[in-house]
Fold Phosphoenolpyruvate synthase.
Amino acid sequence: MLKYIYPFITIFFLFNSSWLHSQQFSSEQIKKQIELYKQDPRGPYNRIRWFCKDGTIREPKDPCPDSIGGGVQHASYKTDVIKLGERNHIYLGEILTPTDKSEFWDEKNNHSRIKQYQLNQYLASIDDGWVLQKAQYYRGAVQSEDEQAWGLEFYNWLLKNNEALGKYYFLIRQSLKDIPHDGDDNLAQLMRSQSKTIADEFPEFMDVRIKIHGKPDRTDITLVKNFQKEHNEDLTPELKKQFDRLDNTLQKFYAPINFEKLKNQARQISETNDITKNVLTFLNEYNNSDSPDIIVPALAELLYDIRNNITSLKKGKDKLLLLDLSNEFENILLRKTQEWKTATVNDALYKICNLSYAAAGTGLIESWEWNKIKPSLTNPLGKDEAQLSELNDFLSTSRSIIEWSAATVKANYEDVVNAYVQFEPKSYGFIDDRVRSTVALDLGETVNKLGSFISEQSSLKNNVMNISSQSTIRGLNPGYAYGELVVVKGNPENTEVDNNKIYIFQRPPSDLKPVAGIMTVAEGNLVSHVQLLARNLGIPNAALSDDNLKSLEKYNGKKVFYAVSDKGNVVLKSESDMSDAEKDLFTVKEAQKNMVEVPVNQIRLDVNEILNMRNVGADDSGKLCGPKAANLGELKAMFPNHVVEGLVIPFGIFRKHMDQDMPGKNMSYWTFLNATFTEADKMRKNNIKEKEIENFQLRKLETLRNAIIQMPLEKEFINQLKDKFKSVFGNSIGKVPVFLRSDTNMEDLKEFTGAGLNLTLFNIVSEDDIINGIKRVWASPYTERSFKWRQKYLLNPENVFPSILIIPSVDVEYSGVMITKGINIGTDNDLTVAFSRGAGGAVDGQAAETWLVTENSSLLLAPARQPDYIRLPLEGGTTKKRATFETSILNKKNIADLRSIAQTIRLTLPQKTHSDYKGAYDVELGFKDDKIWLFQIRPFVENKRAKSSEYLSSISPSANNNKTISLKNRI
């Protein structure tokens, strides 16, 4: 008896000690709690009770009488499980029967509880019940028939109106695979989890497990049986049972399709309309013997029809039946597409087009997205031959479908997975499992096969450590690097990076410090701050697939050479395989090239008055203030109705404050700064290692930064600031929400952009926040990240002066960046635009909606997959909102307005600024009520050395894009 009592006592003391009253339980505490539940025969549950309709609770042998409405029997939760839900919003071992439907849908928390339920089911399937490891045998804790009944009630409630289906079609369809409501199991997931469990216990099974996870088909039944027979003597009795269970799952999954059962299910739909007729027509016309190239296109069309017409049904019950049929049809499609072998180019094109259609039908991509890319996928079909350029366009689009599909899964589940990974690392596999259970799996295989063929025809070959599926890797920024390879599998935000290493990320971190090279699964967007910094520093950057990342994990910690050509092919090889020419790229002489000096000969430090932005122009950049304020003042003159009013705190005010005595140092702030760099120069002359010098400077700059934040501001300056708020913004300080933007003289040099390096404060209102914010912005150039980027490029980083641009907040509905040229594809006359919902969009590595806009057309390069965004309330601060993707961010009018304003900028800005600059511009802007608001403009800087490097030219293939290829060629 003591062995059953002990875990509960341990949990009691674990969660009832002095820190019990803290706001949230730590990840370590939750981890310990889970381990105890695994060993507890009751798991997270307390006792079984009858829960009556009148609110009373009865003992197990005293059921609720019919006279009070009856009731249900199930387990109650342990007290600490309830507290975990209340404090951390973490729900373990959730029983559906007593759960409030709206709380389970959990809309205010981005549907966290329904996602957690799915994740719990996944963890239970791969970890022998997970928190229910022993409690699986706690009889009566969960009543399956009551759970089924609750599931039916939940979906009937949820599907009454069409709003949820419109916004959350993918999530709802996925949840049906996990929430009991019809007696069916999620066989595809069960098949993968059972094979994983066997491989974990019996490593020899790993090759079979990889086959089941990566390229499943009917032959897996024989494969598993033969393996079991071959290794029978080595298998324990428990492993033999696990093999039997896996065999049973495989037999069910690959059993002949029961069309009669599906017809009966379809006939239960009470309403007859076009979509229900289409379902019955399909079931009557097709059968299990139809060849896959016939039935898969029919299924893809049917899935798409169901998605777009399900809202024509009035009853929640009917919609649920149709959604269940949609999931059944997807299962049939997944099995049939595994049988569809593509022998020729035409076969592959046709299959890819139809699987992409199915991706739209199952919610992996949105209907509007499918309509945008459909012409690119249907164009080559039915032809005998096509030009190489057409096939490359097709390949690019089909790769995008895979990326968008994977991004949909991540956007839906990443928040919950990231929360659980902190205390249960196995959670990380959930997203991968979900992606593999969709059409994206076989679509990726077919696209990769086509990509290999087109690469051969284009002479475009990647050389990446001899891994498989290299056609999914594509270069983004040209450049080359040598250093240690670091593969970061999880959330990158807390990763400490080294500027001499090459990093592979799932997604780029929002505040990336300098690195030697980057590869990312989720590239963010082409014009994020990270991408722009990488681009102008010549840091090689490429996109790759999840599978590529996994294949490269074994090279983590190895020294490698990495290069991306301007045509987009990628080289990644071990140090020992480097050629003499590649080794010569990393001499000291090469490293010193392209260092630039911040010009200070014209700086005006005598101007100590706050300026009206209307009185500042481009000629003042680097003299009175940085380019943000100078260029925005110019834009205000050019587009007075599209630019807010503004105040500029010039360099001179910062410099005057820096002449004050620095507390405890017997010198001014300015003297302390210069003494730091003087000492660093002495250390270099004494041959002290550069890393030690850098650490010395960072320690000193941290001291300076903290002192500036505490620096007293002159009374005269504060009074002037208050007066300017009234005269320029029309209201007192403390009543106008504003942005404070750092604007240094180091930004937008011809060879360097400081995009995103220094501080911007969003939507602050109170006088104290504004006063303190000014000092924080002044201090921001001395952060580690800002300093390291400057050190990489600037010869005189000590001569960085911050000015500050103060502008009223505009609560834009969506915002982003426009580059007045095509990036990677397109011409210098095109536009690349990237937008996200809310404020601050597209600049921090978000999965933004990106377009190539030409004179007469607009090409969708990527849809938004950023699951959240911020708005700017009048009372200040920010509010976080949740995004859905059923409509595009930019509309036709927006795109037309962007064309128009870009044309004006191209023609007018060089004249207004008396500049001979002929390059592209980088414009930050937003839309509110379909009106453009311009927030910043700067030259778009690319690294010319990387683009013109002889070595990079030598690895760039020359392909004849007009080459004609027969679509009957075998692949």
